[in-house]
């Protein structure tokens, strides 16, 4: 009886090892009494990282703050908000929800607040004193454009890094209402539209390829011409949740 028990135990152990080795990472195969099996996907836990932003403190002041944008040499270092009640609320209100000509840096609810959309549009005023998105005009200078390539977005426990690939003057159309970014063909049309603005006054990074599978952000601010917007765009190159 002892010999039989050892043999059965050994056979079971070998069977389990073979099943484990043959399975793909992130999957567990559950064997039943029959010859069939059931595969169960195991979701990876998101990687939580420390950020230089105290979101608990920020959210206690305004729970509509959901991220932070940083472009050090462009003097951009602000919380990002999205109003739950009025799409353009932070066009005329500051982070404390007080009426202000400075407004705040914000997105509209056409975009999700986890940056999972193909194109997330972030708005800010072009203030003459260089605050808010007023300093984005520095990207009009080719040397500055070449030297300042990265935008960082902080979220609670998460860091996103985007590489700037374009800085140019665009028309005043509402981008999220003009293109269906859930459609691959429309994404391609949008990319072709972007690059049609390539000229000596607008800057595009030749060593960066942006595709319909990427994730991009668009920083949008006004110009002296009401029918134009100045855009700085970056493509996602790092996400701490998917290092």
- Strands, total number: 11
How much helix, percentage-wise, in residues?
Answer: 10-25%
Sequence of secondary-structure elements: HEEHEEEEHEEHHEEE
Q: What percent of residues are in strands? A: 25-35%
User: What are the low-pLDDT stretches, counting only 5+ consecutive residues below 50?
Assistant: 1-37
Rg, alpha carbons: 25 Å
Description:
With 243 residues, this protein is an alpha+beta fold. 21% of the residues lie in helices and 29% in strands. It has five helices and eleven strands, in the order αββαββββαββααβββ. The chain has helices at residues 2-22, 55-61, 142-147, 175-178, 184-195; strands at residues 27-31, 37-41, 65-71, 76-81, 105-106, 119-123, 150-155, 158-171, 203-204, 216-222, 228-239. Strands 3, 4, 5, 6, 7, 8, 9, 10 and 11 form a nine-stranded mixed beta sheet that branches. A two-stranded antiparallel sheet has the order 1-2. Strand 7 (150-155) and strand 8 (158-171) form a beta hairpin. It starts with a helix and ends with a strand.
């Amino acid at each position: 009886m002892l010999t039989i028990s050892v043999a059965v135990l050994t056979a079971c152990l070998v069977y389990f090892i073979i099943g484990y080795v043959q399975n793909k990472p992130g999957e567990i195969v559950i064997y039943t009494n029959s010859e069939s099996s059931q595969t169960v996907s195991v979701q990876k836990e998101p990687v939580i990282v420390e950020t230089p932003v105290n979101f608990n403190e920020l959210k206690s002041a305004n729970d509509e703050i959901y991220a932070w944008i940083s472009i050090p040499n462009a003097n951009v270092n602000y919380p990002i908000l999205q109003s739950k009640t009025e799409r353009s609320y932070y066009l005329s209100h500051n982070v404390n929800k007080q009426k202000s000509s400075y407004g705040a840096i914000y997105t509209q609810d056409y975009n999700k607040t986890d940056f999972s959309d193909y194109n997330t549009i972030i708005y800010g005023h072009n203030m003459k004193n260089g605050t808010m998105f007023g300093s984005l005009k520095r990207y009009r200078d080719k040397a500055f454009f070449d030297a300042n390539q990265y935008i960082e977005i902080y979220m609670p426990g998460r860091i996103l890094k985007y590489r700037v690939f374009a800085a140019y003057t665009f028309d005043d159309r509402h981008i999220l209402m003009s293109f269906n970014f859930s459609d691959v063909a429309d994404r391609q049309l949008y990319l072709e539209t972007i690059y049609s603005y390539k000229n000596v006054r607008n800057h595009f990074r030749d060593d960066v390829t942006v595709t319909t599978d990427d994730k991009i952000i668009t920083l949008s601010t006004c110009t002296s011409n009401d029918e134009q917007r100045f855009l700085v765009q970056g493509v996602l190159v790092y996400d701490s949740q998917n290092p």
